[in-house]
Amino acid sequence: MSDNTRQHRLATMRACDRILSGIRPVTMRERLADLDAGGDLDGLPDFYGDGPVTVLEKRVAELLGTETAVYFPTGTMAQQVALRYGADRTGRSAVALHPLGHQEMHERHAYADLTGLRAVWSTREPRNPTAAEIAALEEPVGTVVVELPLRDAGFVLPTWSELTAVSVAARETGARVHFDGARIWESTPYLGRTLRQVAAVADSVYVSFYKSTDGISGAALAGGADLAVYARSWRHRYGGNAFQQWPAALFALSGLARELPRIPGYVRHARTVAAALSALPGARVYPLPPHTHQFRLWLPFPARELDAAALALAEQEKVWFVGGWRDSEVPGYAMTEFTAAAAALEWTAADVTEAGHRFLRRAAG
């Protein structure tokens, strides 16, 4: 998608009275005003990672129940450090990854190109690996990565028993367990456990501050004290020890305080919305019910027609249904990733159905 197309879509979405999928875009001035209402702007800024960055690190460690947490400007950098740590500590240059995981799909294979590691695919199935698959890996690995949820398989999660069994199996092979937890915040309702209980199953956890918790950027790598010492050294080597990062830290703290308590409600409402969407003519929803507040939606139209319908509905009726469509591997169908956030809470199942029919009529021309 070109920048102009994205900016046009965001501007159109921002002007709507009602939004079903996604978060209403706000201006930079509005974001700053919101921070002024909830952030500690009277404190001194950070200097190479102290001040508000330290406060954020302590807050993440408290939430996850880990010894420490280390702030990183990007999740890609944090994940490289986690995998490098596993390789150095075990003497194994292979890592167990999923072909649909972040490292393969969204990080440009940095683990291989920058760190010199090799991937052993834990499974080719569109889900996280099982304990049996970990036990049967073709060679010893330093780290087994589990993405919670596995976004590019449809935001899917294992069950709690499956997750704990994978952890046991990985450690029996001598590997560390790393959770790619960019969206771990919304995984707890399905798993039926607290953040601390989930994090305790892994040796390290990466979390994101702009996915689901409404920060502007940044990530953290949480785990033991030895990992933290290692992470701070390699963060510096990778160029991540910036002079000041207080805006991202303050927005992250604000988002954790405001959005984290709301996420279970988003997850519950996503199930209502998904059921209503699945009843639309030709619609496919996966997973059904959703595991988190995000899921995949397919409709039997080309992506360009669905995006055009979304813009027309928004411009003419001030209603944002769902955009960001792309043609899929399912013949005749386009797919989008659906996010049920705060704005979606205003929609009943009947509202979704009624607007969905209007949306489909526009797509059909």
TrEMBL record:
Aromatic amino acid beta-eliminating lyase/threonine aldolase domain sequence ranges: 48-285
InterPro entries associated with the record: ArAA_b-elim_lyase/Thr_aldolase, PyrdxlP-dep_Trfase, PyrdxlP-dep_Trfase_major, PyrdxlP-dep_Trfase_small
Highest taxon, organism lineage: Bacteria
Keyword annotations: Pyridoxal phosphate
Entry's Gene Ontology BP terms: glycine biosynthetic process; L-threonine catabolic process
Gene Ontology molecular-function annotations: L-allo-threonine aldolase activity
TM region positions: none
Cofactor: pyridoxal 5'-phosphate
Annotated Gene3D superfamilies: Aspartate Aminotransferase, domain 1, Type I PLP-dependent aspartate aminotransferase-like (Major domain)
A UniProt-annotated Pfam family: Beta_elim_lyase
Signal peptide: none
A single cellular component GO annotation: cytosol
Family the entry assigns: Belongs to the threonine aldolase family.
Annotated protein name in UniProt: Threonine aldolase
Lineage: Bacteria, Bacillati, Actinomycetota, Actinomycetes, Micromonosporales
